[in-house]
Amino acid sequence: MVIISSKKTYEIDLTRYLINTDSIIIQKNSEKKIAQQLAKDYMHVLEKDDDVVKYCEQPFKINYFFKDLIKEFIPDFYVKYKNEEEELIILNIGNKDASELSEIKKVLKENSVNFSILQHQDIDSNLLFNYKFLSNYYNKGRFINDMDIHTVFTIVDKFKKLTINQLLEEVGKTFERKAEILYVTWYLINSNLLNFNKEEKLSLNTIIWDKHE
Predict the structure, then answer these.
(1) How far apart are CA 94 and CA 73, in angstroms?
(2) Is 188 helix (H, G, I), strand (E, B) or coil?
């Protein structure tokens, strides 16, 4: 799925990174490679993280020496946060062994580049599932009936907190009507108009409430 985003940028200004190093070590990456699946998935996390201001895929190339060879490494993401901090997110280390990875870390540290190396188990699986699932309802407002939105909020306001299953039972008995309201509910959750416990995996038993409560 292609993510249309106001956070995502194609390239970044390398000035800040070149203050402490040489342009031979850090160079512009003009040819983006096809992202690994984990990187594609992680974009959903970056999109939904309120602390992330902007991010860039494969922002630049890092050249380093290893076993008398000049090699290049491309981090997966550059991320800037609301508190003005910046870091590189590294998800894909390929077939690099511990000694080669250590050399890459050394270059980053010597050049005052903040970074985090994450593996699949470091990323909250529920968070990732939720954001990937909800991305299917991004920008779907044109398919939503305003009266259905009003219906959902009327029921949520009545109960304050309730499960999605309970919401569907309140709406009507037919499968078709429940399916319509379920679609609206997922859309409202993705749009941050309905809240839920983001640490739990989304299901029909998920408890929801008004975002403004």
Answers:
(1) 10
(2) helix
Distance of CA 73 to the CA centre of its chain: 22
Q: Which two tokens stand for residue 4?
A: 């249309």
Beta-sheet pairing, 52-57 with 77-81: antiparallel
Question: Can you tell me the distance from the alpha carbon of 172 to that of 181, in angstroms, rounded to the nearest whole number?
Answer: 9
213, pLDDT greater than 80: no
Give the SS3 label for residue 128. Answer: helix
Q: How many CB atoms lie within 10 A of CB 168?
A: 20
Confidence (pTM): 0.77
Our CA angle for 198, 185, 43, nearest 5°, is 45
pLDDT in tens, 59-80: 988 888 898 888 999 999 999 9
Q: Could you tell me where the DSSP H helices lie in 1-83?
A: 15-18, 37-48
Strands 52-57 and 8-9 turn out to be parallel
Q: Are strands 77-81 and 69-73 parallel, antiparallel or unpaired?
A: unpaired
Residues 6+ apart with CB under 8 A from 64: 25, 70, 71, 72, 73, 103, 104, 106, 107
Phi first, then psi, for residue 23 (nearest 5°) are: -65, -15
Q: Which residues contact 204 (CB under 8 A, 6 or more apart)?
A: 163, 164, 165, 168
Q: Percentage of residues in the chain with pLDDT exceeding 90?
A: 49
- DSSP annotation of 53 reads E
